[in-house]
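As promised in the previous annual report, we have extended the structural survey to additional targets. Below is the entry for Right-handed parallel beta-helix repeat-containing protein.
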Amino acid sequence: MSRSALRVVAAVLGALTLVTGCSSGDGDDEGSDKGRRPDGTKVTIRVPGDAPTISDAVSLARSGDLVLVAPGVYHESVRIDTARVTLRGESRDKVVIDGQLRRPNGVVVTAPGVAVENLTVRKNTQNGVLVTGSAAAVAGLPGSGGYDTGDEPVSFLKSFVVSHVTATRNGLYGIYAFSAQNGVIEHSYTSGAADSGIYVGQCKPCRIVVRDNVSELNAVGYENTNAGGDLYVVGNRLTGNRVGLTTNSDHQEKLLPQRDAVVAGNLIADNQQTGTPEQADGGWGIGIGIDGGSDNRFIRNRITGNTNAGLMITATADLTANRNRVTDNTFTANGVDIGWTFPTATRGQGNCLRGNELRTTVPAGLAESASCPVPAKSPTPSGSWASPKAPPGIAFTAVAAPRPQPQFPRATTTGATVVPDVPALPDVADIALPSPSLLATGARVRTS
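The corresponding structure token record, generated without further manual editing, is:
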């Protein structure tokens, strides 16, 4: 919407529903007047009661305000460029931002301290939710592995929360944090993404926690590229995609190479679903794929039913994969539980295994020959195996619609969310191996 059109709705400011700030809704520093009206109150801006569209309401919001959206289908793209605004739907399944296959993004966050909660974003040509400090990314120049931002210097958006969001049938990514730090993606559901359901790219150190999400029926469930440093992917359910999870290095994005992420306590299963968009690199039947990523830790994941490989490590022509540690995971019913395959010139070093429950490896005997610890420069064994052929994919618009998802607690009565400057990072020692019962129930994985 144009700025001139927004001026028309500015008159509703005097009619806004005022609520006093409470402990759950105070996003300002103590003693600061920022984000308050002259009488010291904060505001809940209701859509459509106080503003006819979500974009109108966001344009009126000040730091610390809550934009609360009533059920309905909203045909718009929402950009939040005011710090510490909370955008929340009253009903996760009934508040729908629909791109109609004409808009690139459902929600774009370009300011720090923003929370996006309890709503659905669907049918955007690129992303459901984009959180970024990159102007080029906002301009919408996607590449196969993310955004090629050219000569743009790296600029991070710092602090965000995406919680209880359903992102379905979007043309690139469901929830995408790119050139962003200090954030949380949690309790969300993604499906039908033509690239990946959840993507974290170009951050170092990231200080991002991706937890308790469900990602299914995507080309890739979760992907991170050139992202690491206090990056935790924990307690997620990545099932029924073409590829469950990838961590990789790519020249298309800055901050090469990818290194230092923790993937723990996830259920990664049955990633060879036919009713999905094709994966750009042709991936199929893979639980975890490491392509040029280094110094990552894979701990207590349950990896099962992936017809090609449970976990594979490979490398591109000039980006090797080194010092990845695979410990205490359970592998069952995969084509190959663990497979390592490298181009001769870029064979990895220092990759190792310890304490895993597994049946087959390529090369054979990795549990003994590559048992942790190994010297950092010890060459990683390499082999090959016959991979199943990927069937044709379907259009992202044809992916099945999602079931109703859990609601944000007390969505209509809780004040604006306080987004911390730096999120609390999980203690990996407390993260358990997911129960096998989750395979039958379809329940969410919990980290504790």
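DSSP finds five helices and 34 strands in the chain. Residues 1-70 form one domain. These points will be discussed at the next consortium meeting with the crystallography subgroup.
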